[in-house]
Amino acid sequence: MGNSCLLEITDRYNTFSSKERTIADFILKNPAKVIYYTIDDFARELSISEATVFRFIKKLGYEGYQYFKVSLASEVTKASDNSKKKLDADNISDIYKYITDLYSQNLHETAAILDTNLLDNIVTKILNSKKIAFLGLGSSGELSKNSYNKFIDTGLFCIYNADYHMQLKLASQLHSDDIAIVFCNSGMNKDTITLVDTLKDNSVPTVGISSNPNSPFAKMVDDFIYTHPINPKTVIEKLSSYISQITVIDYLYLKALSNGKNIDISLKHQNKIIQSRKYTNEKS
């Protein structure tokens, strides 16, 4: 959309129905609060149906609630940034502080748009899968390797290979009772899209992680997780997107490790869980 989200609501306010004005009023008064809401949270807050919220979002021109939250979060962030000194790598002496501030900012922006219900559903699928494949190429391949190295410690059956052709073979050998977690930061890599096509041919459930929610990759996978910054333009922004994606993986890993219960587990307890799951896998 060309216009800002809040400006669009303001400009069209007089055309809204009474129920739509209730939604509009809440967004205009609480934009920083809304970006942390799932659509279910929003509906409960205003005692309206999720369908009513969704129709309002569609009326504004957004494909879905998450896209609306991306736009809103961007505006809230810009408003916050305007009250602070703008980060500018060319005009600062402390590059380390610049980087850490940028990483922190993007982690907060990612947290604002993440749907934890979606993440928890993905954890359930992971726990119920026979095999978990981690796929990705280039720098996204490093993320898939990082994820594999974490999840292998859960005792779950994990597979990974750095070579593209081997990844294609792995993808062709997976089934509907497995799951593939695929990284593609740009969302435009043709080889990665071929991997997803191969997975879809075998009815393999897919989870995609990227910073491009409007990409072909985002529309192909079954469950899509996107992180800030959206469509990074610089090397540092790209690196900060990887930090956000690693944080998402850490969430999935800890939830899977604790089986969705207490996420603050000790290393001693972690080892017991791993050994127990390995024994179960061997028995089966």
From TrEMBL:
Record GO biological process: carbohydrate derivative metabolic process
Spans through the membrane: none
Signal sequence segment: none
Residues forming coiled coils: none
Pfam families cross-referenced by the UniProt entry: HTH_6, SIS
CDD domains on file: SIS_RpiR (cd05013)
Record protein name field: Transcriptional regulator, RpiR family
